[in-house]
Amino acid sequence: MSRMRVGWILPLSIVVALLLGLLPLPETLQPLRPYWLALVLAYWVIEAPDYAGLGFAVIVGLIADLMFGSLLGEQALRMVIMTFILQRFRARLRFFPVSQQSLAIGGLLLNDRIVTTAIHMALGEPSLPWNYWWAPLLGMLLWPLLFMLLDALRLGRRG
Fold it and tell me: What is the CATH number of the domain that holds 55?
């Protein structure tokens, strides 16, 4: 893997994921917004672990906290938990077909919703409405497309 290729694609993909998270959506579609940042970070943890680890997850999570106006450290904690799980199972997950990776990513996104709910409950904040639980399913369905796009960019393949 070329250092130059990862060098500009990784930060650019994180910035795009952050911007997609800020993109205004109609109120009815808001609960279906995939957690783009988690999907992009998951790709980099799986495919380029030398560049995306726990420290990177903390930094990206803190930037997301500041951009999205959430509780400082909430998304950082969520990113670190996801990154830790991915690092633990990376050797197996990397060789799964993309369809099986999608199921694992769906499980991670569902776990992220559970962590978010636990944080909100611990702080006495209102929990997410039931329709926000559909977003992990949408993220799972988007994983193959995102994976192929980022893989093509990282490896320099065309079309």
Answer: 1.10.1760
